[in-house]
Amino acid sequence: xxxxxxxxxxxxxxxxxxxxxxxxxxxxxxxxxxxxxxxxxxxxxxxxxxxxxxxxxxxxxxxxxxxxxxxxxxxxxxxxxxxxxxxxxxxxxxxxxxxxxxxxxxxxxxxxxxxxxxxxxxx
Length: 123
Description:
Layout lengths: L8 H4 L11 E6 L3 E7 L8 E6 L2 E12 L2 E12 L10 E4 L4 E7 L17
Antiparallel strand pairs: 1-2, 2-7, 3-4, 4-5, 6-7
């Protein structure tokens, strides 16, 4: 068989390492969208939880590992306040093969528009 099989990012991670980054990466806040990226490469997707309460976006990860020598539990929790013009009903998330969690919310479109005035002549 030629070519290599791409394993999920968490298969390659050193789960015994305590030196992992759960810091918030790139944040984009422009006229079109708000997005944030978080490195969650030491957590499996099923270990992650994203909740939206109003404009408060909460990202959590919890991992428990048991071995013959003991027990390890690591977790993180991040709270981000979404901008007032973010479309909360359209928030989406995706995770890359490298373990980068991307959460994105489009901005609400400007809903003001001109209404034409039609002249109706009475007969």
